[in-house]
Amino acid sequence: MFPSFLPITVEQLTEASSIAFAQSIQTHAIATPLINLPINTTYVRQGSGGTPILLIHGFDSSILEFRRLLPLLAQENETWAVDLLGFGFTDRLSGIQFNPIAIKTHLYYFWKTLINQPVILVGASMGGAAAIDFTLTYPEVVKKLVLIDSAGLKGGSPLSKLMFPPLDALATDFLRSLKVRDRVSRAAYKDSALASVDALCCGALHLEMANWSSALIKFTKSGGYSAFRFKKLAEIQQPTLILWGDADKILGTEDAKRFKRAIPHSQLIWIANCGHIPHLEQPKITAQHILCFGSSDDHE
Question: Cys staple from 128: which of 14, 123, 250, 261, with CB 3.0 to 4.6 Å?
Answer without folding.
Answer: 123
